[in-house]
Each structure stands twice: as C-alpha cells, then as structure tokens.
Write a structure and sequence with these properties.
Helices cover 40% and strands 16% of the residues. With 243 residues, it is α/β, with parallel strands linked by helices. It has a single domain (5-237), classed as Rossmann fold. Helix 9 (195-210) links the parallel strand 7 (174-180) and strand 8. Helix 1 (17-30) packs parallel to helix 3 and helix 8 (156-169) runs parallel beside helix 9. It binds magnesium ion.
C-alpha cells in the first residue's frame, strides 16, 4: 500500500506531533496555487483520551480544520476511545478493541481522494496502537516515510537518534526530524545553558549527525519551520520505489 504521504511520529507522547502535522498541512495548502490545487488528506488512525463531545478540540479536530474540513471528522479518526491511556488499553476499558484492519483501511479512504496524506500516529514510534500492532508496524504497512518529532529540551539528541536508528533497523525511512517547541523557550542564544540555546544547539548537532536528513525547528504557536522544508517534494522524493 504505497502512497504519497508522511507519517508523523515522536520520541514520546506529548512532544508536539499535532503542532507539526498541522504546520505541515498549512504549509502544503499555502503552496497549493503553485501546485494547481493540492488535495491534502489528514488521518489519525486511532486516538485515546478523547471525549466524543470534545472531538473538535482533539488532534483529529485540529488536523481536519487545518486541512479545510475534507471528507468528515469521522474519516480523520475512525476509532476514538475515552480513557487517556494507550489505545488498546483505552478500548479494553470500554469493552471494545482497536480494529487493526480498520487502521489500514482508514488510510486507503484518504489515499483515494488525496494527492498527499499526512498521518499522525499515537504516542511514539514503538507505542502500541492495538493489541498486536505498534505504530512502527502500521508505518511499515502503509509504506510511508517518517517525520520524527521531539521537543528541544535537553536530551533531544539522544532521544531522537534512538528513534532514527531504531526506525532504520526496522527498514523504515526517516524523511525529516522536527524539534517542536511545546512551550516558549526562555533565555538567549548567548547563554549556553538556556532553553533557547539548548534547542538551537540540539538542532545543529542533530543535523550534523543525520545528514542528509533535514532537521527543522518549529516555534511555539508558530506554523513556519526553520529552515523551511518543501514537504510535498520530500514526501514524493521519499516515496517508496515499487519492489
Ligand atoms: Mg497529537
């Protein structure tokens, strides 16, 4: 099931994946007049910790809004569970289970109507999505390149490299890394131990370590990446070759 798209994953939960996915969608749509009308699909295969009454506030709701409300919110996230724990545990708490085939089928729905599909995983690359499926397993099935997200606090180099190396060991392709500021960064670049300087140095050092994979920074409540990345081209260039 090879398609044009990107799978947004993280080093952990709460590292800013949704902000990155939303910013990628916005950046793709901003360039759409040049592309002659790019159809951008958005997909969150499963979500937990979502009250069905507040679904518009959820990751899926934010992705759907950013993409201009294509199809339906239910198509963005077909499987929602309430308890804020892993999706399989959250489903179990409701006497249900995560439907693994539906995780794949839900992507195919978007593939049919989109030029590019931005998928946001749940948790980190090795977090469970279903009883016998990790995020990494779905990435392999969908055959999408990864965007690995971490927050730029101290430890970002080690956390990110661990995921990049583990992805490679599984035969998954990393298209880009983004350090996503989940809160404003204090201090100045002139103070080496300030959060701002740590973020900048982490991005610089990571870029050296994983070249030619691009490393971008995304500011808090900002939708522009530094440096700018052509996500459409990256998704196409990283598109899997047919075996
Ligand atoms: Mg999220």
């Amino acid at each position: 099931m090879a398609g044009c798209g990107l799978f947004i994953t993280g080093t952990d939960t709460g590292v800013g994946k949704t902000a990155v996915a939303v910013a990628i969608v916005r950046s793709l749509l901003q360039g759409r007049s040049l592309d002659g009308g790019l159809r951008v699909g958005v997909y969150k295969p499963v979500a937990s910790g979502v009250d069905p009454r507040d679904v518009t506030e959820s990751d899926a709701g934010q992705l759907w809004e950013a993409a201009g409300r294509p199809l339906s919110l239910a198509a963005v996230c077909p499987q929602l569970f309430i308890a804020p724990i892993s999706p399989p545990a959250s489903a179990r708490a409701e006497g249900r289970c995560v439907d693994e085939q539906r995780l794949r089928d839900g992507f195919a729905v978007w593939q049919r109507v989109s030029d590019i599909v931005i998928v946001e995983g749940a948790g980190g690359l090795f977090s469970p999505l279903a009883d016998t499926m990790l995020n990494a397993d779905l990435v392999r099935d969908l055959d999408l390149p990864l965007v690995v997200v971490d927050t730029p606090r101290l430890g970002a180099i080690g956390r990110t490299l661990a995921v990049v190396e583990a992805a490679a060991a599984r035969g998954l392709r990393v298209a880009a890394v983004v350090l996503s500021q989940v809160e404003p960064l204090a201090g100045s670049l002139a103070e080496p131990a300030s959060p701002r300087a740590i973020a900048r140095e982490s991005a610089r050092h990571l870029a050296d370590l994983i070249r030619p994979v691009p490393v971008a920074e995304l500011g808090h409540h900002v939708t522009a990446f530094t440096p700018a990345i052509d996500w459409h081209r990256l998704a196409q260039r990283a598109s899997p070759s047919t075996p």
